[in-house]
Amino acid sequence: MIETLEWTLLDGEHALLVKGDMRRARERFDYAYAEAAQRGETAALARAALGLGGMWVHEHRTAAAAATVRVRQREALSRLDAGSPLALRLRIRLAAEDDYRTGGHEAIMALAAEARAADDPVALAEALSLAHHCMLGPGDGARRMKLARELIGVASRTGRRSDLLIGLLWRTVDLLLEADPHAERALGELRTALEGEGQQAIEFVVGAIEVMLSTRAGRFEQAEERAAACYERGVAAGDHDAPGWYVRQLAAIRWYQGRIGELVPLLSDLVNSPMLAAVDDSPYAGLAVAAATAGDRRLAEGMLARLRGGVLADRPRTSTWLLSMYAIVEAADLLGDAELAARAAALLAPYAGLPVMTSPGIVCLGSVRHSLGVAAIVMGEPDAAVAHLRRAVHENLALGHWPAVALSRSRLGQALALRDGPRDEGARGQLALAAQEAEALGMHVPSGVAGRVTCRPEGPQWRVELGARTALVDHCVGMLHLAALLANPGKEIPAADLAAGSPDPAAPARVSAQRMLDGPAGRAYRNRLAQLDAEIAELEAGQRREEARERRAERDWLVAELASAAGLGGRPRTFAGSEERARTAVGKAIRRAVDRVAIADPVIGEELRATVRTGLRCSYDPG
Predict the structure, then answer these.
(1) pLDDT score for 141
(2) CB 412 within 8 A of CB 396
(3) What is the pLDDT of residue 521?
(4) H or E stretch including 340?
(5) Residue 566 phi/psi, 5° resolution?
(6) Could you tell me the superkingdom of the organism this chain comes from (predicted)?
(7) Helix (H) or strand (E) segment spanning residue 619
(8) Cβ(54)–Cβ(31) under 8 Å?
(9) Which of 376, 287, 302, 393 is nearest to 338 (CA)?
(10) What is the torsional sign of CA 604, 607, 611, 612?
């Protein structure tokens, strides 16, 4: 009859390695550890401590749980003969946990070599799997594949089915991460190996991969249903990644549906979850995109600020690094942050040939070149954007990622429009095809420059906006003219009327003298002046001197502007002259204003250059 302690250990090992039930395994090993410690059973204590580590690295997410397991493993190791197989396996587990936290893999690889030299197949199998888990970031594909192949071979010596399943799983993951066309064939082999007696932990990962494949196929409803089922499977298996994976999968679906802004509350909860892996910054980046899409610029910028010392620094590349960088580039585009886009592009460039995927294949957002193309658009480099996005379309087609194809094609159309003008046939063709593909998939294609450019005075500056993009531009005469055109899209306004300060698109062209600040712009200035007088009086009465000083500075600027538009004796200046003189003066002023906008935001500037027409009659035609 097997005594209670041994039975508990065997039950824990069966739950972990055969059933993949991590929840039950933890309970069994926790009980066994306490029992072995009380009895002074050294070997049983070591087996229980090993089992508490689980199947993967970093299974214990809270600081308290992780510290407890670490102390128990070190205590068990201290009681063992240093040269024993159990001691080697404990050293392997401790080294893997340390390497994972620091983003390295040197210690665990050294212990894998030690296990080979000792000809210990069980220790080697565990070392190979844990080492593989420690190098899931981009750039280590060849080394990972070598580990997976060796693990599959070693599994024939350990006699443990779980070693073979893990080896086949890691091989599948490696092929997915490298965009290998045989990845789904490997997944099929893994599914076949799982038939019969199930393995919950590995089935959970396979289910997550299937969610990703449904999303890539553009079957969003199916993907969402599978994501919910996968979440339940992960919870049942006791995998702490279940909530985080579900949110990421849902975020990918909502991104392609144009509904990512809906997930601000869910992503806000995730960034503060103690179950989030310590090395995972992707929820911050995802929240930045969601917040920027929802119009919460402050929250978006706050999340990006948190990332500047993490994934945006020269730190080890984790399994979620590419996903974070994709989100950062999209947030930079939404916020019009060219500096951030340039920084992200420089970091992404070495990985241009890879898909944006978070391991173990749970989310895929298409080719890295898509992000490089978007970054180039934000940076005002349309030639580079076109080159990257053409490649992105091709690589997304090879992936069979139809939503990413439509999105990259839309961005390619945008880049061509920026480079060759919005009326360019190539740009129109790509945009039309992208819209057609998106409609067939039931997805949303954010063009990035859709909609009208608007502007409004803001203190001594003008705020120019295009969608979520914003540029602040200092005042000049050309901005007054540009504001009038933007307020009347599709309508022609005589240059003489713009020069006179009284643009009326319905009125015929006038050659006679007109008052420069006697139209809507002048009235807006005077109305703001009256408002400022009232605000200054109220603030001074309330002893709010600093705010009063700010309002007074704006008032002084407005008074100076009005004075500059007046002639001798305070009489309004007039613009007397021919239509030709008005055409020349207004055209130069508008072009200078557009140049100022382009310096502040190249994308908005290029859009204005493509849509603003000057001449005897001027117009803004956004198409």
Answers:
(1) 92
(2) no
(3) 56
(4) helix 338-348
(5) -110, 150
(6) Bacteria
(7) strand 617-620
(8) no
(9) 376
(10) positive
Q: What number of other Cβ atoms are within 10 A of residue 6's Cβ?
A: 14
| Secondary structure class of 466 (helix, strand, coil) | strand
Distance CA 194, CA 167 (A): 12
**pTM for this structure?**
0.76
Q: What is the pLDDT of residue 558?
A: 64
Tokens standing for 203?
Answer: 């089935």
- Which of 324, 331, 261 lies closest to 302, judged by CA? 331
Q: What is the pLDDT of residue 2?
A: 58
Say how far apart CA 215 and CA 90 lie, in whole Å: 40
Tell me the per-residue pLDDT of 63-96, one tens digit each, with 9 for 90 and over.
899 999 999 999 999 999 999 999 999 999 999 9
List Cβ neighbours of 553 (8 Å cut-off, separation of 6 or more): none
pLDDT at 260: 93
60 C-beta neighbours (distance < 10 Å), count: 18
What stretches of 297-452 adopt beta strand conformation (E)? 355-358, 363-367
Q: Which residues of 400-428 are buried (b: 16+ CB within 10 A; e: fewer)?
A: ebbbbbbbbbbbbbbbbbbbeebebeebe
Could you list the beta-strand ranges (E) of 565-616. 612-613
Spatial distance between the Cα atoms of 44 and 63, rounded to a whole number of angstroms: 25
Q: Give the integer Cα–Cα distance in Å for 179 and 187.
A: 13
pLDDT digits (tens, 9 = 90+) for 123-138: 999 999 999 999 999 9
The one-letter amino acid at 482: L
The total of other beta-carbon atoms located within 10 Å of residue 439's CB is 11
Nearest in space to 581 (alpha carbons), one of 522, 461, 500: 500
For residue 39, CA distances in Å to 35, 42, 312 come to 6, 9, 51
Question: Is residue 541 packed enough to be buried (19+ CB in 10 Å), middle (13-18) or exposed (0-12)?
Answer: exposed
**Residue entry with tokens 């991460």:** 177
Q: Which residues of the chain are modeled with pLDDT < 50?
A: 1, 448-449, 507-516, 567-577
CB of 48 closer than 8 Å to CB of 33: yes
Contact, 268 vs 247, CB < 8 A? no
Please report which helix (H) or strand (E) contains residue 56, including its range: none
Structure tokens at 210: 């299937």
Sorted by sequence, the CB contacts under 8 Å of residue 184 that are 6+ apart come out as: 213
Q: How far is CA 588 from the centre of its chain?
A: 41
Phi, psi of 337 (to 5 degrees): -100, 90
